[in-house]
Amino acid sequence: MRVPASTEVTQCAIMHRMLHVGLTGNIATGKSQAAHVFAELGAHVIDADVIAHDLLVKGTRTYLKVVEAFGSEILTMDGSVNRRKLGEIVFNDSERRKRLNGIVHPDVRDEVLRRVCELEESLPGGIIIVDAALLIESGHHKLYDRLVVVTCDPNLQLARIINRDGLTVEQAKARMAAQMPAAEKLKLADYTIETSGTLRETHEQIEAIYHDLLLQELRLRNQE
Fold this sequence. Notes:
By secondary structure, the protein is of the alpha/beta class. It has a single domain, classed as P-loop containing nucleotide triphosphate hydrolases (Rossmann fold), CATH 3.40.50. Helix content is 56%, strand content 12%. The chain has 10 helices and 5 strands; from the N terminus they run H-E-H-E-H-H-H-H-E-E-H-H-H-E-H. Strands 2-3-1-4-5 form a 5-stranded parallel beta sheet, sandwiched between helices. Helix 1 (7-15) packs parallel to helix 6, helix 2 (31-41) crosses helix 10 and helix 3 (48-55) crosses helix 6 (94-122). The longest helix is centred in the middle third of the chain and has 29 residues, at 94-122. It is globular.
């Protein structure tokens, strides 16, 4: 790993039989589909965004901290988090967005690392891919051996957001503008997946990257 950030990470780094890869990309660039293809090819994929969703289930430690920070206005009648309402609040207020991220990101990171360690302990080798939308923004990309960034043409990205989420052009552009520029993420990438072409073209890029990752994972195990 690039940076041992805790005792747990350091313990994983000691065994470190597997290649740890971060996968990220901005909204509607095709990151989730790329993760699915990597999984089909044999990678062990951990979806940090799904973990974040699960951590906000009613009654969890993360849920309680978020409710304490944002109040009952973010809750539905049954006491669960109204994710759309919470999203609207933090999207329009950068300070509250930072506050939410400050609560959720450390808990997501801890659970991701727990799962990484679990895989390291149970398998003799392989590739672990952590799929996370805010991997770079949170600084957690530094924990991984390699970083893959998914990108696409901005006009196509805009169309995907509008069609997928039912937003207006202005709303979709605001979502895009609120994220770290793709160009900044690409500067940090070890690999780039460009999804503006056909599905076959995207699949071929992922296959080539996975083949290269397998070679690196093999070299890692041979160093033991």
